Amino acid sequence: MAFRLPAAALRPLRSSVHLKPTMQQTRWLATPTPFPVTQDMTSSRGPTAMVFLNMGGPSTVDEVGDFLSRLFADGDLIPLGRLQNYLGPLISKRRTPKIQKQYAAIGGGSPIRKWSEHQCDEMCKLLDQISPETAPHKPYVAFRYANPLTEHMYRQLLADGFGNGKGGRAVAFTQYPQYSCSTTGSSLNELWKWRQRLEGKAGPLDDGSDGTIKWSVIDRWPVHPGLVEAFAQNIEAKLQEYPPERRDKVVLLFSAHSLPMSVVNRGDPYPAEVGATVHAVMQRLGHVNPYRLCWQSQVGPQPWLGPQTQMSVEEYIAKGQKDLVLIPIAFTSDHIETLYELDEEVIGESGHKDTVKRVESLNGNPVFIRALADLAKTHLDSGIATSPQMSLRCPGCKSDRCHESKKFFAAQELA
Amino acid sequence: MAFRLPAAALRPLRSSVHLKPTMQQTRWLATPTPFPVTQDMTSSRGPTAMVFLNMGGPSTVDEVGDFLSRLFADGDLIPLGRLQNYLGPLISKRRTPKIQKQYAAIGGGSPIRKWSEHQCDEMCKLLDQISPETAPHKPYVAFRYANPLTEHMYRQLLADGFGNGKGGRAVAFTQYPQYSCSTTGSSLNELWKWRQRLEGKAGPLDDGSDGTIKWSVIDRWPVHPGLVEAFAQNIEAKLQEYPPERRDKVVLLFSAHSLPMSVVNRGDPYPAEVGATVHAVMQRLGHVNPYRLCWQSQVGPQPWLGPQTQMSVEEYIAKGQKDLVLIPIAFTSDHIETLYELDEEVIGESGHKDTVKRVESLNGNPVFIRALADLAKTHLDSGIATSPQMSLRCPGCKSDRCHESKKFFAAQELA
Question: How does it sit in the membrane (chains A, B) (predicted)?
Fold first, then answer.
């Protein structure tokens, strides 16, 4: 079945975008050129590679060791300074048996690959419909610490006909709604590293380009209405499990992965963006229930941002508040931090498994997948390579890698 | 001139409110009673005392000593534990000469009283127009550490005919847009303390009431559209001072008063709500400029939430980013933290006074004052005493005062 050409395809670029035009785009608007017409207008700018970035997780218990060794080697996530290469392997080796047991307890591996591939596939199908001018959209997943690794994704892109003198367009779409240098920043640095290794030496072609892949980045989306709606619906569904007379008094505990205070104090934007997500969800819910934002998964002796999720649950129970709903607010699919840490440890050890509950993760939620498609469509229409916010380093940033990586993505010209 | 009766006065209560009705209100809706008709329907529920809560500041240099001694005596703001009564006076006495010099440098005193009284007066005039059913609205200001103190405000309320067997309605309206236990919480605890001292022993009257003042609370409003609009307009005005070719690259540095990490880790809601304000303002501005949220006014050796404002300015300048606009995002009028700390210290010592600037504070901004009136009108229409969020203590809270104060306000019945 052929795509019908939607009205949107006939509008000039940026028409549906909320960002102000940049200087360059203002000039473009001032001297309009005819909309380019090709024989196949429905895919005049495709194909487009849609690359989901996430941390990933071991799909089997046997992969736990490799996963942890990559994780503790990442100075963007766990800053161990000069001792990274020495301490990282030590810590990861020591933690492997314990973490293997946790993955065994949740069914033998993380479901994050399954969900990421499903979400990306389904989003690309929707995009082919709502953005035919950039179709076909080809789904890729690039994990930071597990298969499919960023390197493998990049090699696959090249094998599939992107780059290598043929150019082509790829969108790096972070699956962390809120930006942290530890998460999205680390994934982008890794993507930049492999891009430099695998395409960095490309020379100029006859047409003046260098035939490499043109990258653009969707770097954060903490208050996208579809994301907010998906969270809110899941919370409403969970609240239905409480008797009506107790329902409005249930305390909503939003829980996000914590950060070391050294990262917070450097100026990482994540805590403020998580706050924005929480407030947007509460507005959508009409502020009926009391709530708090707390932070989970602290490791090691250095100070991390609090209040801690487990402490918060224990303290509320001690105060007599036993109706609690936990909401993982900074991750879009199930993983060890929901299935083990929240379900087995925080809830399991609370002594009140009947009244302390967790909302469903977004996983295959169709409202969420439509939100992803809407985000991607808006981005593709915008013609921008990165948000102005992404190009700003943290005030306390000392990382040359961050500097170079941000410069690279911000300089991408999407003709 | 007589007020015309607006259509709103004929609608049942809560009609314009976004909050879901509580159980009690659901019952009320299920069995509607006729709207009460009085001879003077335009003020059937007035008069209403509108009480602005804020920290206050010394209006003259001579008041600095008293101001600081009250400030360092407040365990909600500066938790010194058992040593509060000993350490507080010591610290305040030692700091007085230095702080006196700062107030001398900004003209001999804080303008916060002038602005608070102006804002409250103007809001009450607007309310008399848009909420005639609760008119007349009588303006009061209650500061935590300076005149007019909460005690004096409460005595004035009684002298003006509220309470003392005559009942009457008063709204405690925090002037901190984002809720912290250190600020709004402390003001409410103080209000509750004086209410107990001055009205706590009232006995039952013939009509079954106790004739005391009925209190309700506007406890937070971090993303009110009028607040966001006022901030955004001030930022846009400041950006106009930069040449067009540099304007979109100016970094916006939102600056809020920091908190000790002990308060953050106890579960204080303030950091997340400040994050929500920042995001709402950036959305209104179309995310054109890069930005960061940073925190100012840390004192003492214990860890506070960062990144610090002064460090952020220094680091950005060191990175070559000299176009910076500072935005005080958690306070609604000028005070020592804007006029001295930001203007004299952060900007004055930056070496780049020509390119590092501060936006105007909200002060007498009519957009902001309309926002205050809209917040008050919505609250008065809602018929609720406190938000569900206000009645929830922090997970790590150990304060009996917080517990009792929250219980008191949440239990107020607005007939």
Answer: Peripheral membrane protein
Token match 């690039």: residue? A142
Query: What is chain A's alpha carbon radius of gyration, rounded to the nearest angstrom?
Result: 22
For the ranges A204-218, B46-60, B247-261, which has the lowest average pLDDT?
A204-218
By CA distance, what is B399's nearest residue in A?
A: A319
Q: Give catalytic status of residue A137 as yes or no.
A: no
Distances (CA, A) of B363 to B112, B125, B175, B335: 9, 17, 12, 10
Contact B114, B26 (CB under 8 A): no
- Candidates B168, B151, B170, B145; CA nearest to B51 is B170
The pLDDT of residue B46: 83
Half-sphere exposure of A375 (CA within 13 A, CB side): 28
**Structure-block tokens of residue A393:** 């380093």
B392, B403, B406: which to substitute to probe chain A, counting the most A Cβ within 10 Å?
Answer: B392
Distance (Å, whole) CA B136 – CA B125? 9
Report which DSSP code applies to A136: P
Q: What are phi and psi of A169, to 5 degrees?
A: -120, 135
Can the peptide bond before residue B47 be classed as cis, meaning omega within 30 degrees of 0? Answer: yes
Beta strands at A48-54 and A137-143: parallel, antiparallel or unpaired? parallel
Query: Are A394 and B293 within 8 A, CB to CB?
Result: no
Site from A315, A323, A386 to mutate, B interface, most B CB atoms within 10 angstroms: A315
Report the C-alpha gap between B176 and B227 in whole angstroms: 11
* Cβ within 8 Å of residue B354, ≥6 positions away: none
Identify the pLDDT of residue A43.
Answer: 53
Please choose, from the candidates A162, A152, A151, A148, the residue with its C-alpha nearest in 3D space to the C-alpha of residue A120.
A148
Q: How many helices (H) and strands (E) would you count in chain B?
A: 14, 8
**Least confident span in B161-165, B305-309, B324-328:** B161-165
Q: Tell the residue number behind the tokens 């199908």, with chain if given.
A: A125
Residue B415 binned pLDDT confidence (cut-offs 50, 70, 90): low
- CB neighbours of A83 closer than 8 A, spacing ≥ 6? none
Closest among B362, B322, B327 to B342, alpha carbons compared: B327
Distance CA B217, CA B406 (A): 10
Query: Per-residue confidence at B43, pLDDT binned at 50, 70, 90?
Result: low
Peptide bond into B148 cis (omega under 30): yes
Contact A16/B at CB under 8 A: no
Where do we find the tokens 């901030």?
B231
- The whole-angstrom separation of Cα A336 and Cα A334 is 7
Instruction: Give the Å distances, CA to CA, from A335 to A92, A185, A293, B203, B322.
Output: 18, 20, 20, 58, 42
Q: Compare CB distances from B388 to A287, A393, A395 and report the shortest one's residue.
A: A287
Q: Do B307 and A265 touch (CB under 8 A)?
A: yes
pLDDT, mean of residues B274-282: 98
Residue range A274-279: mean pLDDT, rounded: 98
Angle separating helix axes A186-199 and A400-411, nearest 10 degrees: 70
pLDDT in tens, A181-227: 999 999 999 999 999 999 988 878 888 788 999 999 999 999 999 99
pLDDT by residue (tens digit) across B202-240? 878 888 788 999 999 999 999 999 999 999 999 999 999
Contact A392 B251 (CB under 8 A): yes
**Cβ–Cβ gap A387/B245 under 8 Å:** no
Question: Annotated catalytic, A374?
Answer: yes
Contact A102, A108 (CB under 8 A): no
Check CB contact of B20 with chain A, cutoff 8 Å. Answer: yes
If you write DSSP's letter for every residue of A165-191 in order, what string do you get? Answer: TS--EEEEEES-SS--IIIIIHHHHHH
pLDDT at B41 over 70: no
pLDDT in the model for residue A413: 76
